[in-house]
Amino acid sequence: MKLLFEESRPGRGECLIPVCDVPEYALDPACLRSSAPRLPEMAEVDLDRHYTALSKETYGVNCGFYPLGSCTMKYNPRVNEAASSLPGFVQIHPLQPAETVQGALRVLYDTEKLIAEITGMDAMTMQPAAGAHGEYTGLLLIRKYHETRGELAQRTKIIVPDSAHGTNPASAVMAGFSVVSIPSNPEGGVDLQALKNAVGPDTAGLMLTNPNTLGLFDPNILEITKTVHEAGGLCYYDGANLNAVMGQARPGDMGFDCVHVNLHKTFSTPHGGGGPGSGPVGCKAFLAPFLPSSRVREENGKYSLFDPEQTMGRVRSFYGNFLVVVRALTYILTLGRKGIPEASEGAVLNANYMMKRLSEYYTMPYPQPCMHEFVMDIGPLKAETGVNAMDVAKRLLDFGIHPPTMYFPLIVHEALMIEPTETESQETLDAACDALIQIWKEAHEQPEMLHAAPLTKTITRPDDVLAARKPILKYLFDEN
Ligand SMILES: Cc1ncc(COP(=O)(O)O)c(C=O)c1O
Q: Cα separations (Å) of 88 from 58, 104, 190, 305?
């Protein structure tokens, strides 16, 4: 596809700008550019076609199956969009006086109460803009807690299992801690003995996802959180996988002190293009005084903003990604007390259905029943046929299916991680299983074909390392 600059023709870019109806202001000449910007010049129809063609090159949940493990790419009901587009929500300003935005404040307040109930927490902030940002905020809560007890100098370590999402150790370091990685046991859970060896007077806390990134619920969870608490540390729950347990089990009841949830996954906001996301953080009452500023409270039916007594300050401008919160509230209210647990049941059922069908062909390194996602190990297939996880993922594109997460979690070397989500029908799951089974057969019959896959796409195997290391982010004009 040609770029806009390549489609541009001089003189074609006539555009109608309304006549200026305010007095002109003479800018400082030092701020003026010396030549006109080289903007592409095109007719409106060509511009429209360009962007329409571009939109057809993209792939989203609305195009087809998107089983990207750990990302919960589920269908986002249209009603959420309708609610978040209401003029009363989009045409307000964050600096408006509280009495003029009572509805918006109530959205923040009600969503906080509902997510606190779902996670078993006492208080929340809606400020963090994504999951990793929530992790960082939660760790700052833990930091503040140790600081006020005069133990921060001593409690410098955060324990993170080796199956953790990469953002966990990164957030711990950003928050000023060092990371102690502990191994998983053969069943994929936390190695209890390794945890007991790791905790001590230097433990600030533990970060854990449950179910973890292998899609497994840790049956020792109560003992894990007790071990950390007995050592004087706090427990942080990475709630990015809450889609597996919402309405069934609560991090607060598992012994966690604080948690973030990804509204852009579990609570149904479109994501994947870099945002906007939202990673609200919840905590137990004893951590609430440290929460970020600008929380909402209600008194006699009136909503107002306040700063917690020992607030850590702001972690983001204003109140977070407000319209994502509107979508989450709409989603929770439309599903209700009955629908929330049904959604997680569906997510777990769909993952187990696919896992069972595929386990006749592919190796499941953790064959016990999974939660909302499962990991396949392509290692044995590679040893037999030379076809690796990348080849299988690339070939799926020819079947119109978005590839699963690849090479993650790191503890399974040729991992493909599949998360079907609850919003897919049995027909869709069967079609994906059929495609993966056919790919397994092709791996045995014509492996070379898989090394060259995808066979039907314009872009096949770009050099992703080069693209990341030397990105070309601006158009290079041909000066001749
Ligand atoms: C388990 C887990 N934790 C944390 C995150 C980070 O969330 P975000 O991408 O919103 O920063 C993710 C995202 O994929 C995740 O899967």
A: 31, 8, 47, 19
